[in-house]
Design goal:
By secondary structure, the protein is mainly β. It has two helices and 22 strands. The chain has a six-stranded antiparallel beta barrel. The chain has a five-stranded antiparallel beta sheet with strand order 2-1-22-10-9, with no helix packed on it.
């Protein structure tokens, strides 16, 4: 048997991910299945890096020189773990589905006279968020948590490639799954025939939620972490002061000085905590330096408005915990109605 003859479960080796949608009717019968290849963002490497470390490290000097396992101060199950499947849809200001007639998602190919998805770009496009996320309110439009995690084999040769005995199965395909029930994501409920045409989907990490409630908010807002209670409605922004430069300082009245850490992304707004952007080009900044217990936060750029005028005085800061590991515009919209249950499986292939 040659290498070319080896049966591979995933023959297309040019991508690192795959999204599978399975639609079932009210009787549980599979109506259709759609698979779409997908590239994984650079955050997936960061996710893997933060999952590999153990929660303990070996200290050879502990236990009177005999050695012992001690806390490594690493928790691999926090914000770098994939927990959520986020959904976006094509609709206008009145909630009417647009399907292909939405230039935010699709362009008309003049050669084939067919619609093709727009190309997602890197950088600060839409501040790294979904193009048009569906507002979350539970239970009709819930934050979709990952409900199942499993692993699949990927067959590849090892050692001498011409020997069949050397073919081995590597358990390096992780599958994240969630189910959109028949009574979920069926539109905004303005008419009896209302429905969503789901056009984008993202696998993401972020802070953990048990219940969101009727927040009517975009996922990006939901994953902003402030100070105070762990609930989404009664947290407040971290009060800081800005002097127009790239360094901001946590106010002396704040006690949770280590909410923000080096490497975090933060959102800067008014001191009241309102989610306005103070006329900034982007309210999101990267923390490049922050000492544990310190109050000064060094950012990647100066805090200015869109006219490049310094923002001075008290500001409100939230920690941004949302991380989109993968983001895909679907090749064609998926109509979600109360007639179908939609199972979403997200495969990441570590080959």
């Amino acid at each position: 048997m040659t290498r070319q003859d080896l049966p591979e479960k995933y023959p297309f080796r040019t991508y690192k991910g795959e999204i599978e949608f399975e639609a079932r009717d009210k009787n549980g019968n599979t109506v259709w299945i759609r698979n779409e290849p997908n590239l994984v963002k650079i955050f997936a490497k960061e996710m893997l890096a933060h999952r590999l470390p153990s929660t303990q490290v070996w200290n050879p000097q502990a236990n009177t020189g005999l050695g012992a396992w001690e806390d490594s101060n690493i928790d691999p199950n926090q914000e770098f773990a994939a927990r959520y499947v986020l959904l976006g849809a094509s609709y206008d200001d009145n909630g009417v589905p647009l399907e292909f007639n939405d230039t935010r998602f699709y362009d008309l190919d003049t050669v084939t006279n067919s619609f093709i998805p727009v190309k997602l770009t890197v950088g600060a496009t839409n501040e790294g968020d979904l193009i048009n996320p569906i507002a979350i309110t539970e239970p009709e439009r819930p934050l979709k948590r990952v409900e199942s995690i499993s692993f699949e084999n990927f067959y590849q040769p090892s050692g001498v490639p011409l020997l069949q005995d050397d073919v081995r199965a590597m358990d390096n395909v992780v599958v994240f799954e969630t189910t959109i029930a028949t009574d979920e994501y069926n539109g905004f409920g303005t008419t009896d025939s209302d429905y969503f045409t789901i056009t984008e989907v993202a696998l993401s990490g972020g802070r953990s939620f048990d219940n969101v409630g009727a927040c009517e908010c975009a996922p990006r807002e939901l994953f902003l972490e402030g100070v105070g209670s762990t609930g989404t409605d009664d947290e407040t922004s971290l009060l800081c002061s800005a002097s127009g430069g790239s360094t901001i300082s946590i106010d002396s009245s704040e006690t949770d000085v280590d909410l923000i850490k080096e490497g975090d992304q933060i959102r800067i707004g008014p001191s009241t905590g309102a989610l306005t952007n103070l006329n900034q080009v982007s309210p999101y900044y990267l923390v490049i330096s922050k000492l544990v217990g310190g109050r000064d936060i060094q950012l990647d750029r100066a805090v200015v408005d869109s006219s490049n005028s310094p923002i001075v005085g008290q500001i409100g800061v939230y920690k941004d915990t949302l991380r989109l590991f993968s983001h895909r515009i679907l090749s064609a919209p998926i109509r979600k109605t109360s007639d179908i249950e939609l199972i979403v499986r997200w495969r990441i292939i570590f080959n």
